[in-house]
Amino acid sequence: xxxxxxxxxxxxxxxxxxxxxxxxxxxxxxxxxxxxxxxxxxxxxxxxxxxxxxxxxxxxxxxxxxxxxxxxxxxxxxxxxxxxxxxxxxxxxxxxxxxxxxxxxxxxxxxxxxxxxxxxxxxxxxxxxxxxxxxxxxxxxxxxxxxxxxxxxxxxxxxx
Length: 160
Known about the structure:
Layout: H1 13-23, E1 27-31, H2 53-56, E2 62-66, E3 71-76, H3 79-88, E4 95-97, E5 105-109, E6 117-123, E7 126-134, E8 139-143, E9 158-159
């Protein structure tokens, strides 16, 4: 499908990473570096195609993944939850962690992704977010890292 993009016109590590996520069944979305949401109007409807790939993923842009469509993500917000993840979460081959920190994003395949939910607890009178499940239609920003763990430049995340 992306033979034209695989030519000399493809000179962006961000595009290479987006194509790798696409090949794994994800729906990547370009995000301006450092932003939390895409600047694209109707980003939820964006789909990487041969026609829009080169201009949509310029060098240095961050990548977000739209959940649903066979995938969901568990985001471990609390550091304590990250240390307990290996004992309590199902195994997965796709995890993301910032720099040298334990992974905090765990990606899974699911026939029907649920709606997003947040789990909070009250500790000493404060509400603490422990984890977020990102389901149908939500966006997970992963920074500038390819699925094989290659850091594209100075990046916000890495795949384990």
